[in-house]
Amino acid sequence: MKIDSDDVADLAAGATLLGSGGGGDTATVALMLQHTLTRLGPVHLIEAMELFPRAMVAPIAATGSITLLSERLPAGHEFQHAVTTLGQTLGTPVSALMGFEVGGANALFAVAAAAWTGLPLIDADGMGRAFPRIDQVTFNAAGLSATPAVLADPLGNHMVIAQSRDNGDAERMLRAAMPSLGGWAATAIYPMQAAQAARHAITGSIRGALALGRLLRAAQRHRSERAAMQAEFDAELLFSGGILQVLRHARPRTGGTVTIEHRRDSRRTLRVEVGEEYRLAIDDGRVVAAVPDIICVLDALTWQPISAEHIAPGREVDVLKLPAPVHWTLPQARDLVSPPAFGLTLLDEDLGGPIAWLR
Predict the structure, then answer these.
(1) Mean pLDDT computed over 41-63
(2) Which domains does the chain have, with CATH numbers?
């Protein structure tokens, strides 16, 4: 399969929904990707199993501030340098790229990086959605190391994190480096062999985002198509109503809370806990969705996804839940992305009723 400029709108739409309110704005990055594919031609999408089992694969992402990145778009050499330097550090060239995060702007950057480097792109990623930290990937759950990791900025600076005690430390070092790199960097991280990619990545995620985006765009044009999209992706309509209040917490990393009044029953409210993404939905005291579920808030009229950053009172919305990627339901992975991993502490699992989380 090839991804060309005609696929960009669908990929952007699907990636935005899989961002669960986070992952960065895809609009500007989509324009950049469309221009790149028009100029350089389509990207080849392959399966990891098509490669020699020991071929080197590099997950690729833009890390740091997507807002700053949108104001200072990459020229392409940043990702080329990151991939080349990683190969030099490992002593073996990179044979293929792989998505790091299919939710949000990084789905588009993975395709653009493949175009810039001329390498094939494996149809897989490490999240199946968007998460804020580099240790919240299936590769970490499988015991793979994030290092060596290479960060490249637009000025030609390359930084190699040669080794870290664990992937949590790699996350901290990477974030600490961002200010000196101008706020964002092209990042090649979690290098692995093709056989490991086939075993531990979430396969089919790029095709899935394309298909989801295609159906979402049809649902935006024709209201009658909404049910088809929900059925195809097992999406559940959790709530419909108007946003009463958006409370931002003083500590930015803990996010905030959105309160939504039901459209037909004013006595019923939905509370959505927000961080970089939507993390928890509580319908009158009953938990109806929690990370790693993909919680999506859409404008009720247009069905355009609303980001956690821009959600505001007064809007009429529909709240959807897409099922969590199956990798995140496994015991060895669940703790990385469950509510306590985001500061939402589980009070009691033996209540015999709803499970409640509080900070």
Answers:
(1) 98
(2) 2-205 (3.40.1610.10), 234-358 (2.40.390.10)
